[in-house]
Every structure is written in structure tokens, then in C-alpha cells.
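pls design
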């Protein structure tokens, strides 16, 4: 009787050793940011084209990678669904007949399925996998559209910046000529004030468009999934011919049905 606690302790220790142990692993934000910054590092001034920005964004954009992880999870769930057999109840009916010295026995068994859940689980998992696939496809199309729009805005801003600089250089040359004319007594002092006001307006406009350019570059870097520090050495080759796009025809019902967003919603509904 005295040895009972000892054996109970051994049994408890064996039970505890067989249990899984959870180790907390909090996210180190500083380490994650350092890793992100290292992956986005640009060692020397580099200029990229619109096509290169698209390729970088398709790999680095966090929203797209989140959608890819969700699709991978759905693929794994669909692969593992329906592995277990449908639970069932079974019973035996046995009848024994006895008459004089003759004994007769027989058995009869029935198996009745309960739910049919494995097949339903497999079908539901496949629908969610299809929905996540079309959701990812639509996310990629939305990303490319957003990047193209941001790229066009930056191209217009940079072109506008170039025009303002050219006008500012022309105003500076004009002010130099006005100073010479004032020195020669050909122009009064009020003309200098007007010229100075025009030059100050052009300088303020250049400062505003420069700030807008930086904001649009930051937006592009964010869309591409790069660290904000990459904007310092990353250039964007936006010089392109500006042409009006061709008119887009109204989509037909079949074209609407083929949209990835609608397909994802239909798969989710199914």
C-alpha cells in the first residue's frame, strides 16, 4: 500500500512526458523589419521600368503573399478532407432455435451510414479552394491595375516637374535681363517686383510638385512591397509617350461571368 503513491507518480510523469509542450514564440518586430529591409536593399542608384516594377510587386506584395498562403492552406485542407470513414452503427441479430436435440443458430448484421460527411467535407473543401484561387487571381489583377495607375500618376507628375523647371530657368534668365534694363534705366522698379513674384510662385510650385512626386514614389514602393528606405536609391523610368487608350467596350454577360471576382463569389456561395 505504501508503494502506491510511488507508482502513481511514475504514471503521472510518464503521462506528462507524452504530452505536447507549447513554447511561446512572440514575433520580434525589430528582427522582422531588419529582414524586410535587407530583402529590399538597393546598394546603388537603380532605375527600373514599369515591367520590372510589376515583377517585383508580384513577388514582394504582402497582400498577394497573404492570398497565396490562404490558397496553400485551402489546398492542404482539400487534400486531407474525406480521409476518415463515415461513422456507422452496427448490430447483430441472433436467433437460436431449439427443438428436441437439434440446435440451430444464425446471425444477421446491418450497417447503416450516419451522416455522409466525408464526401460533403471534400466537396466543401474543393469549393473553398476554388474560391481562394479566384480570389488570388483577382487580387493579382487589382494589384497590376493599381500599380499601373500609380505609375501613370508619377509619370505625369515628373513630366510636370520638368516643365516647371524649364519655366523657372526661363524666368531666371528673364529676371537677369530685367536687372540689366533697370540698371540702364529702361525699366522701372515695379517690373522687378512682378518678375520676383512670378519666380517665387514658380519656386513654390516646384516645391509642391516635388513633394507630390515623393509621395507617389512612396506609394509605388509600398505597392511593390519594398521597405520605405528603398525609395532613396530607387528610380522610376516613367518617360513614355502619352496616348489616349482605346475605348473599352461594355462587357457581355459571359465576360462578366468569367471575371475572377465573380467566380470566387460563385464558388464561395456554392
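designed seq:
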Amino acid at each position: 500500500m505504501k508503494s502506491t503513491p510511488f507508482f502513481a507518480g511514475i504514471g503521472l510523469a510518464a503521462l506528462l512526458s507524452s504530452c505536447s509542450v507549447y513554447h511561446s514564440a512572440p514575433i520580434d518586430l525589430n528582427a522582422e523589419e531588419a529582414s524586410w529591409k535587407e530583402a529590399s536593399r538597393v546598394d546603388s542608384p537603380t532605375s527600373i521600368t514599369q515591367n520590372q516594377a510589376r515583377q517585383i510587386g508580384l513577388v514582394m506584395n504582402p497582400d498577394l503573399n497573404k492570398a497565396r498562403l490562404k490558397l496553400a492552406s485551402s489546398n492542404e485542407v482539400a487534400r486531407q478532407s474525406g480521409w476518415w470513414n463515415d461513422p456507422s452503427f452496427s448490430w447483430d441479430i441472433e436467433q437460436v432455435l431449439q427443438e428436441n436435440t437439434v440446435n440451430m443458430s444464425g446471425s444477421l448484421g446491418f450497417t447503416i451510414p450516419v451522416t455522409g460527411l466525408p464526401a460533403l467535407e471534400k466537396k466543401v473543401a474543393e469549393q473553398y479552394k476554388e474560391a481562394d484561387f479566384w480570389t488570388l487571381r483577382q487580387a493579382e489583377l487589382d494589384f497590376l491595375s493599381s500599380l499601373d495607375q500609380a505609375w501613370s500618376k508619377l509619370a505625369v507628375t515628373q513630366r510636370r516637374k520638368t516643365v516647371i523647371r524649364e519655366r523657372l530657368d526661363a524666368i531666371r534668365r528673364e529676371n537677369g535681363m530685367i536687372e540689366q534694363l533697370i540698371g540702364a534705366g529702361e525699366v522701372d522698379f515695379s517690373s522687378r517686383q512682378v518678375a520676383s513674384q512670378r519666380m517665387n510662385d514658380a519656386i513654390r510650385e516646384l516645391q509642391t510638385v516635388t513633394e507630390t512626386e515623393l509621395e507617389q514614389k512612396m506609394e509605388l514602393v509600398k505597392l511593390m512591397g519594398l521597405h520605405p528606405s528603398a525609395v532613396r536609391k530607387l528610380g522610376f523610368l516613367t518617360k513614355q509617350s502619352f496616348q489616349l487608350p482605346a475605348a473599352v467596350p461594355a462587357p457581355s454577360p459571359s465576360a462578366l461571368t468569367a471575371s475572377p471576382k465573380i467566380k470566387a463569389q460563385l464558388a464561395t456561395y456554392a
